[in-house]
Each structure stands twice: as C-alpha cells, then as structure tokens.
Write a structure and sequence with these properties.
The protein has ten helices and 18 strands. It has a single domain (about 40-315), classed as Metallo-beta-lactamase, Chain A (4-Layer Sandwich), CATH 3.60.15.10. The chain has helices at about 1-20, 60-65, 70-75, 115-125, 140-145, 165-170, 175-180, 185-200, 250-255, 265-285; strands spanning about 40-45, 45-60, 65, 85-95, 100, 135, 150, 150-155, 160-165, 205, 210-215, 215-220, 230-235, 240-245, 260, 285-290, 300-305, 310-315.
Amino acid sequence: MKRLFRSALAAAFVTASAFATMPVLAEAPMVKTQAPGFYRLMLGDFEITALSDGTNKLSALRLLQGDSARIAEALGRRFLTDPVETSHNGYLVNTGSKLVLVDPGAGTMLGPTTGDLINNLRAAGYRPEQVDEIYITHLHTDHVGGLVAGGQRAFPNAIVRISKRDADYWLSEANMRAAPEASKRFFQTAMAAVNPYIDAGKLKVFEGVIELVPGVRAEPAYGHTPGHTMYVVESKNEKLVLWGDIVHVAAVQFDDPSVTIGYDVDAVLAASEHDRALADAAKNGYLIGGAHISFPGLGHVRRAIGKSFEFVPVNYSALK
C-alpha cells in the first residue's frame, strides 16, 4: 500500500512539474467596448428601433438650473456622480411603407464618444440610403450633426422635416450675428448640417400639430428651443411619444420637472412642457422615448409623491 501511495505521489509530482513547465497561454485582453447599440420593439404593426449615438459627460451640477444640493442628492440616490454619463438616442420607425428616423445624432460634431448612430443603424440591419424621412426634434448639434458626413448628406434619399419655428431661428444668419459669442456654435452647426439638404431641395418645414406620414405626427413642445417638437407614433391603439429633450438628466428631472438646463432658450416654457409631458404620459400610460434617458431610453412614466414622477424602463425582450 505504501509503495502504491509513493508511486501515485511521484506521478502527481511529475504531472504538476509538466504543467509548470508548459508555456503560459496569453491572457485575454479586455475589449472595453459595448455590443452594437440598437434595441427593437414592436408598436402595433410598426417596428421601432432605438439607435445609440453614444454618450458623453454632462455636468448636472453646472448645467441644471435648480437647487444644487437637491440635484446632488438626487444623483447620489441613484449611485451617480457628476458629471453624469449621458446617452444620445435616435429612433427608427418602420411603418411598413416608410422608414423614418427621428434625430440622426451628432455625427462628428460633438467629439469622439458620440457619432455612432449610422454604424448602429447598419448593425440593426438597415442602410442610410433606405431612410425615407428624417424628423428633427430640434436643431441642437447632438440632434442634427449626424445629417452629414464629410460635408455631404449622410442620408442621400431622405427628406428632412423640421419645425418652421426652429428652422427660422437656428438657420438665420441675422440671429447668429446677434447671439452671444458662446451660442454662435449652435447656429453654425445647425447650418452646416441642414444646408446640404436645402441645396438638394430635401428640407421641408412644418407648423404645429401635423401628421407627417400615416401613423406619425408632430406635436409642439416649445421651450427648450423655439420649435422643439415631439413625435407621436401610433399603430393599432399602441402609442409611443418620442420626447426629444424633455428630460436631460432622468435621475433629477423626473423627481423635479421644474429643473431646467442651461441650454434652454426659454426656461420657463421648458419647465411647463416638462410637467405637461410627464403628467400626460403618466395619466395615459403610453410608451415614451427620451433622447437623453439611458439607452434605449424607452419606458413608461408613473406618478410618484406630490409633483414627482418615476420612469419605468421597458422590460427586455429578445423579440423571437
């Protein structure tokens, strides 16, 4: 028995020694990127695809207009620190007869952490040339920069539709000259993004509440910009409202819709629109999509305590 034990021990030692002298396999490098940023759901007969344009850092304590102590406390309750990593989302609506993109992202105009929307559109199974219509919530850089690539139309077959109020304001040379120096860049990027479509005869403006294609209509939500617009998508009694910039920092503004942001052109009107949009979504229970709510930015709103609201993200679906 002792002889058997000594033999087994010797064999184990030889095996261990062999492993010790084997070359060490290379360690797997960290990838440090996410999967392609798209998320799909069905709304009645329509296919909705949320597209990530990326994220960037937003200083909530510097840009949000409200009680800074309450803002910091609201961030902390949700395990967030300032600056907050903020999503940039666009939404593709396939009605079956039209392919509509709501906000094409920032393109190359906002830095290296955004500008992913077209790549994610391709990853989602579509091509830019398939997009029939592009609806712009407002003409801030992060919502229109992706219209162009290398100064050319990134969506060569698309008609671009913008509220006349926003087009009149941001595409005006006179308004740009009169604007504070720090604000001129908003006019410049809007013009750079939209002018190629104007030159091609592919810009169409609209006013007020109007159906743009069957099942998709524009609805004014002025304040953040003069023509800030939401888009209402309806099919088979199911409804999705694409909010644009009703909310910039969900951790703060669902709790307190009166909090505005320094980018608002009319902060008083913007705060009123925040409360109206949140209250209507909570009352009627439809789905919302937010441009800056954590990707995919889709969910429902419900009343919380007092004047506060709560965002309830959609339940994940594999769509099989």
